[in-house]
Amino acid sequence: MQGANQSYSFIVKNPQISSLKADSFIKITRNSMGLRGEEFNSKKHKVKILTVGGSTTECIILSDGTTWPDLLQKKFVDSDVWVGNGGVNGQSTFGHIPYLRDHYLKLKPDIVIFLIGANELNKYYLNNQGQPAYDFGREEPYQYNKLFPNSAPSSSEEVTTTLGQVFWHKVYEYKNYSKILLNIIELRSRKLTEKYNLGHVHNVDLINNKHIQQAEILDQNYEFEVDLKKLKTLKVNPDRLKNELKKQVDHRSMVRANIETLINISLENNIIPVFVTQPALFGPQIDSRTKVNLGTMILQAGNALVGPGFSGNEMWSMQEVYNDITRDLAAKRNVPLIDLASLMPKDSLYYYDYVHFSRPGAEKVADILYRPVCKVVKSNLLADKNCSGD
After folding, report:
1. Which of 91, 142, 169, 361 is the S-S candidate for 95 at Cβ 3.0 to 4.6 Å?
2. What topology does CATH give the domain 7-225+249-279+321-380?
């Protein structure tokens, strides 16, 4: 898989970023398997767990060691369980299938944790409403990882790129530069986003800097971080919600078939699939921190999981339909399910937008997942495993 043994870093440009929720300077490292997380050590690790999902799994705005897969591994204090982060920004079950079949099976995981739901709904709105979703891994299996070429740059390329990166870094540092230059930065990152078909994914302008160690700029103004207090409100329109759900019937059928396929591939290869439902910061609840009604607020255009001006209650109703597909299939196929959508508090501390986890959010996710995942390990792989709290 391309992107193996790569390390890169970037800056979040949005001045609204909360230091409590994420670092402004972020470093991401991919190991020899092209995954986030430490190397698998066959002498040390007895169980190999792989996490599969989209941006809510990859956690691109969280630095190494602070993503929920990282924190989940750390909870196995005796270090005999390894967790590799196979999340890919923008990917849904349409891309998980070829990634699992063509790449992840080669890693021979014992358990695969699938966090799905956000992009299953999101793809409907990003792909002409109901058409088969374009997804990483579907037409070009490793297109996403073209962002991380294996070949090392020549010495001249190193010098050119380094100087370029220093220039853009300095533009960021000095707030009094003209808006024209800032617009150039934004245009530059958006063009790269479009070039690699990154969909809803953060407008990332990344350069393989294994040999450079300079920071690029992440233009996140359009998506990062939601100010709930500035959102307008809207009451749920039952007829509009009913019509939207009706229009998504065919798309949901494809998603259901995808999940069935993921289960089949896993079981046929002696892998235990663990499914996790997608939580979100919208729905019928008041945010305790901002006192905003998360059900009547209109989700801000440009953010992940936003249809045409829906309220939080409408979007949550649609999201729950996809979560219900996961719940239903897990029960029927007798595979483990962790209902994170029900267990994760709707608290703005835990999200930096509507679905992506902040640093405290990643910690909370790891807390919720640890016990049930540990029990799967104990029941199926390590009978003497001590799951704290048992």
Report:
1. 91
2. Rossmann fold (3.40.50)
